[in-house]
Each structure stands twice: as C-alpha cells, then as structure tokens.
Amino acid sequence: MGNIINFADAAGTTVSFSFSEDQLSFDGLFSAGKQTLMQLGSDVAVTCNGTTVTLAAVTIDELLDADFAFADGSVVRFDTSNQLTGSDQADYFYFRNSSSDAVTAGAADDTIVVGDHLEATDAIDGGGGNDTVTVSGSLSVALSPTTITEASGMSITSVATRCIGFRRFRIALTGRKRSHPVRSKRASVAPHISSQ
C-alpha cells in the first residue's frame, strides 16, 4: 500500500493519487453511501457530506474498491467483477460497463450509480433502507422482474428519466430542480426506464 490520505485532512485540496497504490481514508463522520464521484478533465472529484477532495491525474474507470476505506465499515464497489456485495452500512456502487451485474446492497441507505449501463440482465437487490439508483446519459432498457428487487424505499434519480410499469414500490423522479413522486399502478407493459 502506498500513501493513505485522510479525507478530512485533505478537504478542499487536489492530491496526487495512484489508484494502484494509494488509499483515501474516511473517518467515522463519513459513509460511502453519501459519496459522489465526478470526472473533472483528467482528475476525479470525490465529495462526501459536502467535503471535496480532488484526485489528480486519475479517471473513475481506473479506481478500485480498495482505493476507499471507511471507518464505519461501509464500502465502495465498482463493477470490476459481476458480483458486487455491500455491507450493513450505507454503501456506494458504481457501474462502469454494460454487463450482467448482480448487486446485493445490504440493509442501509445505499447509492447505486448505473449511469447508462443498466441492463435488463442486471440484478439489483436493494436490501433494506432507502436506496438511490442514479441513471444518466442515454439509456433505454426494458427491465425484467429481477432487475431491481427489494425496492420498497428506492428512488431513481436522473435529469430526464421515465419509469413505466413499476409496481410494489414508490419511485421519486428527480431532475430540473423538481422531484416527482410516482405511484405506479399495475402496468400492461414491461417495466421500462428511459433517459436522455
């Protein structure tokens, strides 16, 4: 292991970061499920609880699960394997490619970033808690009955997303500074998500 960079100590700075050697360490005030990653040119901004650290000269596609360590036991999982398993804490899952992925999110309020990589053959088990699935980019997928399960508290967020045919759970569509809660009734078509 290379450098261990304390997230709170590095707040507001840009740090040199080797994805294959370094680790960003979060104390007990932070949880993986509250984290966001944003590509800024050749750097990655990591934000958690309103605090940002920028990792220099690295892309999101290069980051590894082991690059993030949270004192509360929550985890970050990238789809480098097709089996992504969380903890009982608020975890962060990030899809980087289109393949059949299986996510077992666990009991807390997890964040699952699928971007435009959600496939009908994915299996996302939200577990307990109030999970968020974030969709972005150009996406149109007809969901199977097993694509998203245990979703009683799940919300799907995107700038422009339509969800058709979901039943048994509430979906909050977020975008353009408005949130539109939708209670779907039994649908005559297969569940479908479309994003532009």
From TrEMBL:
InterPro entries: Serralysin-like_metalloprot_C (IPR011049)
Name of the molecule in the record: Calcium-binding protein
Chain spans, region Disordered: 177-196
Basic residues composition bias: residue spans: 177-186
Annotated organism of origin: Mesorhizobium calcicola
